[in-house]
Design goal:
mainly alpha, 100 residues
Length: 100
Amino acid sequence: SAAPSAQSFASTPQLTSTTAPGKIFASRSELQQHYKSDWHRYNLKRREASLPMLNEKDFQYRLEAALALRKESEGRQERTGVDHLGKVSKIGGKKGTEER
């Protein structure tokens, strides 16, 4: 059989989402999975703040950077035994700032 012409591809509706710039989904179920993703939720929040949508690559970069910062912060908290409010944890056993 003959290969489909370019015209037949143009008439086929493409599954896209405004919260997934540059992405064409292969199926409705793939699009539904996107709607459940952190990428979709993040871009919805960006839209509410009148910020441009992030493509998948940029979102993944920001996600990895945020996770690395969280891991670094949690490691620092474990070493000092003091939480972000300056209170001494009972596990740490260190003397620190007084509770207010």
